[in-house]
UniProtKB/TrEMBL annotation:
Origin superkingdom: Bacteria
Keyword Glycosyltransferase in record: no
Keywords associated with the record: Membrane, Transmembrane, Transmembrane helix
InterPro entries: SpmB (IPR052549)
Protein name as annotated: Putative transporter
Lineage: Bacteria, Pseudomonadati, Pseudomonadota, Gammaproteobacteria, Enterobacterales
Source species: Escherichia coli
One GO term describing the cellular component: plasma membrane
Transmembrane feature ranges: 69-91
Length: 92
């Protein structure tokens, strides 16, 4: 998608924690592994993924959503994030 391989670490961090993803992106940008353009493209994806691992325990578990739907919900988050990367590549 036009991003360096290091961008995958940002997306993996977003699965676990949105704040962690911001920290990883900032760290990689400071180290020179990601450019400002790369971080700009990744920002919407970080927020659309929105730490689904934490949401499973906090929101879906509390709402008693059937566990068989968890993978579908997480997949929608990932698809939204990948689509946002594509759209941002067109815009930026």
């Amino acid at each position: 998608m036009g991003l360096p391989g290091e961008a995958a670490t940002v997306l993996l961090a977003a699965l676990m924690s949105m704040g962690g993803a911001v920290g990883v992106a900032a760290s990689l940008a400071t180290a020179g592994a990601l450019t400002g353009h790369d971080v700009t493209v990744l920002l919407p994806a970080m927020y659309l993924m929105g730490n689904p691992v934490q949401n499973v325990g906090r929101c879906l578990g509390t709402a008693e959503v059937n566990a068989k739907y968890y993978p579908h919900i997480i997949t929608v988050c990932v698809i939204n994030a990948l689509l946002s990367i594509w759209v941002m590549q067109l815009i930026v």
